[in-house]
Amino acid sequence: MSTDDKKTGRARGEEWWTTKIIEMKPGMIRLRGYAIEELIGRVSFPAMIWLMLRGELPSEEQADLLGIALSAAVDHGPQAPSIAIARMAMTCGVGINSAMASAVNVLGDVHGGAGEQALAFFGDIAAAMDAGHALEAAAAARLDRFFAEAEGYVPGLGHRFHPVDPRAPRLLAVTRDFAGRGVVPGRFADIAEAVEAGVERRKGKKIPLNIDGATAVIYGELGFPPPLTRGLFVLSRSVGILAHAWEQSQQGERNKGPLPREWLWAYAGEPARDLPKAEDE
Amino acid sequence: MSTDDKKTGRARGEEWWTTKIIEMKPGMIRLRGYAIEELIGRVSFPAMIWLMLRGELPSEEQADLLGIALSAAVDHGPQAPSIAIARMAMTCGVGINSAMASAVNVLGDVHGGAGEQALAFFGDIAAAMDAGHALEAAAAARLDRFFAEAEGYVPGLGHRFHPVDPRAPRLLAVTRDFAGRGVVPGRFADIAEAVEAGVERRKGKKIPLNIDGATAVIYGELGFPPPLTRGLFVLSRSVGILAHAWEQSQQGERNKGPLPREWLWAYAGEPARDLPKAEDE
Amino acid sequence: MSTDDKKTGRARGEEWWTTKIIEMKPGMIRLRGYAIEELIGRVSFPAMIWLMLRGELPSEEQADLLGIALSAAVDHGPQAPSIAIARMAMTCGVGINSAMASAVNVLGDVHGGAGEQALAFFGDIAAAMDAGHALEAAAAARLDRFFAEAEGYVPGLGHRFHPVDPRAPRLLAVTRDFAGRGVVPGRFADIAEAVEAGVERRKGKKIPLNIDGATAVIYGELGFPPPLTRGLFVLSRSVGILAHAWEQSQQGERNKGPLPREWLWAYAGEPARDLPKAEDE
Amino acid sequence: MSTDDKKTGRARGEEWWTTKIIEMKPGMIRLRGYAIEELIGRVSFPAMIWLMLRGELPSEEQADLLGIALSAAVDHGPQAPSIAIARMAMTCGVGINSAMASAVNVLGDVHGGAGEQALAFFGDIAAAMDAGHALEAAAAARLDRFFAEAEGYVPGLGHRFHPVDPRAPRLLAVTRDFAGRGVVPGRFADIAEAVEAGVERRKGKKIPLNIDGATAVIYGELGFPPPLTRGLFVLSRSVGILAHAWEQSQQGERNKGPLPREWLWAYAGEPARDLPKAEDE
Fold first, then answer.
1. I need a surface site. Which of B84, C171, C273, D182 has the fewest CB within 10 A?
2. Do you know which Pfam families this protein is assigned to (chains A, B, C, D) (predicted)?
3. With contact defined as beta carbons under 8 Å apart, do A161 and C262 qualify?
């Protein structure tokens, strides 16, 4: 951060918290330069999200497409750690915001990072295309590098539970529709399909695009950088987290554990033993 | 929770995590009974939020009004503890979801609860009206009770910083507009204005509606119960939290403290002293 | 907080963060007036905890008794939401501090507040004794009030799982031992037993002291105020939370859900249904 | 995790939560094989921490040394994000456990990871010594590699605020004392000093050991693996976090921001501007 080291006192304190997002005086709130009372009622919630993150307003269609991606990943049920934790927390005597915090807090590299990884992967291919390579060659080169370096699934493909994740083909079709109307270029949709095809050639079977890959396509089309997609996923999943926390709060449980109350857990450690005699015994 | 105590084994385990929100099988995801691939592209993000929380789809206009309320409270700048914490956390080497969690976690009774309190207050007046009392009388009776029991501001009125919060009159005007089109009854807008007027009569000066009161009006018009408004505020403020966390991550700071790096804090405790001699010295 | 409103600039900023706990200059750290290098190696960890919370050093025996109470409540297994959440979080790709945070965050009024409630209850009886009432009468009066106002268990008594919690009688015996040596008065141990006896007279069966009641006895003997006992419980349970998070990290799981991976959850909501036709269809 | 896939029903559910830490039945709690009522009053709090994390009891002297390291890092004042966040959170209307959670949550790679990095660095040198290299050569080789790969400070050395961190030399002296009594080998103390000397030779000035380096020495002497040192730091710093949260709760502030209430923040973004005309205007 470029700070003016010559400032002192209150000006220096206020400079410490510089931001380009919000300007405020008594009776005045501006977001990214727009008066809040002008924004209210004029821009949709996804457009407000865009404005806050990007600094400029999207077109109405761009905001619609962002909203579609945000809507797609709101919930994947209580076997997901985030959702289970929201429900458990809600029975422990904390506010609904704290239950949501404990849940959001686990959307880490593994639980929340797949979209970011997928978009970075697709972005590498886009960069190769910018440098003059054809789509298929760029995808093949990136896959070669992936299989040389890593094991397991290519980012954005495959699902341990769904043979085909029903969200992915629908999101891709929607993206194609928006591309057809000129809202987005459609390039990341092409890339995702080229990756899918390249994997199928290598593996001899199709490993279909999953929700993380499909939302990465949309976020890429809309110009979001990969690390922001984790944040967008947090906004999206927070909806399911809130819904489950709320549903749980309407039931009467206390200190809900992971297993039915009358069950325990398996113990696999040291058998019963006595404390060693104290040194002075 | 009504549990069937006769179930055992896997069925009992699965019953332990019963929900009415999401149904899943391999290749199938349904939210509130709707196939996810049907929802995607057909419902807006605010409509999805509504569906998840309420169990039924809203009308398009209801969803629009919900989105307007969600958009209005996204940010109030880094003097708000939630926003400051998001920025500080982001410099400590954690993921953006964890920075958001630390921030969301402080939207408690004081920082995040004012809307809930305002809606409960307005709801008491609505209940009195349902029982046959006229608006002004119902508001006056509730205010009498408030001033007999409590000190300080009536929930939903007044702001320590803004003489008039620019969001509140705009949100009220928007609500009136939606009421004029028959989307909502307009009753909570009436109640809020009656409360404002009643306070002015008592205090001799106007204590205007604030953002919490104004969003409480909308959430009340739309039929949300008071405790859910805290959850909705979390969804809304999470946008600002993400925007500030993201902006902070683009700068190079490490372990950002509350004051400029070269400042300290005032110490007001015991002066320097020696440890007491050990008992065996 | 008494702030000197005449201060300005840096002095005002530093005053904003006034504390009596720690004084620092380059090369100097003092806790409660003691130089850190004097404290290191001279005071035990429980004594340091006491110093930080109370402002003065305890005797060695007081610190020992505090350490005993802290040791007793470190773990109650993965059916406790806090422990389960620590383990689940650890499989989601976050740091061990974040896994601990999600877990500590659920030690709320229900999961972490029983000790505070028990000490407040015992403290009411102690206050009545200070006002001249005999132990048994003071306990009976408090219990009368409890049963007139509330349902369920008296704070500090009873356990849904353990007929007798093995920690409680042992902690009480230890307290008696310290009281015999004059370290503590033994008064809260008397009060807890009087409460136990009073409940037995009313109910016709013994509802024995639990871990929360037993640690409340010790914290009361040592002079901690009730709200601080929740904080002490956090320090204690953090040990078990860390142990389980660490054990989990040594296994290879990803996104550990509450139920075995091949299980699901029961769905009890709306059956499959079609989206309503859009208004313009 | 090796799971017996042939188990079904309740046994499978209980196996899903297998642990070697705690065994429980009604009326029975065993930690690492020891009955809890045997442990209570017989082992110190640091010994309990060791038992939970390592699976075996330490000697009394090992526990003492662990307690010394835990005591040294409890607080570094409210300019540390963790401490500031605890204080801010406490004014927002959440429980003390939630204030602690928001604070612990920021002890990430940057704010809480330096000890882990230092111990890993020292451990590389120890491994080279195990492979037959002399101390000085092993340290020099590791430093060569560090300066070839990275910029900035060698892990465990240097402090932005303290010319010499007063905790570090004292902790090193204590370690030497324990080594002299045969409690620990003293090898990590040697390594730390060799690293310090090696850096001084390269830089021409001494960059002294800091608190992270000094506690890493002790944790290394005691045989803790690097990733666990972050967890130990969380236990340690939780004490200061609790002390500051508690002190803050005794004052009457609400929604404490980072700067004095009457200050704001600097705005560096877009100047005021009007919304673009809607497409249908």
1. D182
2. Citrate_synt (PF00285)
3. no
Angle value at C-alpha B185, between B180 and B189, nearest 5 degrees? 85
Domain ranges of chain D: 44-256
* Beta-bridge partner residues of B22: B31
Does A112 reach chain B within 8 Å, measured CB to CB?
A: yes
Q: Which of B15, B17, B20, B176 has the highest number of chain A CBs within 10 A, making it the mutation to test binding with A?
A: B17
Residues of chain D in contact with residue A105, where contact means CB-CB under 8 angstroms, are 105
C-alpha distances (whole Å) from D26 to each of B5, B9, C158, C165 are 21, 21, 13, 8
Q: Which of B22, A75, A74, A88 is nearest to C267 (CA)?
A: B22
Average pLDDT value for residue range C72-76? 97
pLDDT tens per residue across span D151-171: 778 999 998 899 999 999 999
Given a contact cutoff of 8 angstroms between Cβ atoms, the answer to whether D228 and D219 are in contact is yes
Name the H helices within C17-108.
36-39, 45-54, 60-72, 81-90, 96-104
For chain C, how many residues are written?
Answer: 281
Whole-number Å distance between alpha carbons of A43 and A59: 10
Contact across the interface for B53 and A100, Cβ inside 8 Å: no
Strand partners, B29: B24
* DSSP H stretches of helix in C150-225: 167-180, 187-203, 211-221
Helix B81-90 × helix B226-249 angle, to 10°: 40
Instruction: Tell me the two tokens of residue D179.
Output: 């080594």
CB-based contact D50:D63 (threshold 8 Å):
yes
Given a contact cutoff of 8 angstroms between Cβ atoms, the answer to whether C224 and C232 are in contact is yes
Q: What percent of chain B clears pLDDT 70, i.e. is strictly above it?
A: 97
Residue D189 CA to chain centroid, in angstroms?
18
Q: Do B200 and B130 meet the contact criterion of CB atoms below 8 Å apart? A: no
- Coil, helix or strand at residue B30: strand
Measured between CA atoms, the residue of chain B closest to residue A20 is B247
Taking the C-alpha atoms of residue A64 and residue A66, their distance in angstroms, rounded to an integer, is 5
Pairs of CB atoms within 8 A across B/D? 147
- H or E stretch covering B29: strand B28-31
Q: Check if the beta carbon of residue A174 is closer than 8 Å to that of residue B41.
A: yes
Q: CA C43, CA C63: separation in Å to the nearest integer?
A: 9
Q: Contact D249/A1 with Cβ under 8 angstroms?
A: no
Residue of C31, C44, C270, C277 to mutate for B, most B C-beta atoms under 10 A: C270
C61 close to C181: Cβ distance less than 8 angstroms: yes
**Per the structure block, which two tokens stand in for D231?**
């967890």
If you compute the radius of gyration of chain D from its CA atoms, what whole number of angstroms results? Answer: 24
pLDDT confidence tier of residue B1, bands split at 50, 70 and 90: very low
Contact (CB<8Å) D20/A267: yes
Instruction: List pLDDT tens digits, range C140-183.
Output: 999 999 999 977 789 999 988 999 999 999 999 999 999 999 99
CA angle A234, A237, A238 (to 5 degrees): 80
**Taking the mean position of all CA atoms in its chain, how far away is CA B266?**
34
The Cα–Cα gap between C125 and C131 comes to 10
Find the closest chain D residue to C232 by CA distance.
D242
Report CB contact under 8 Å: B105, D109.
no
Å from D156 to nearest chain B CA?
Answer: 16
Distances (CA, A) of B256 to A12, C29, C205, D176: 15, 20, 57, 35
ipTM over 0.90: yes
The answer to whether the CB of B139 falls within 8 A of the CB of B191 is: yes
Q: Rounded CA gap, C64 and C58, in Å?
A: 9
C-beta separation of D239 from D74 below 8 A: yes
Q: Which CATH superfamily is domain D44-256 in?
A: Cytochrome P450-Terp, domain 2 (1.10.230.10)
**What is the DSSP code (8-state) at residue D157?**
B
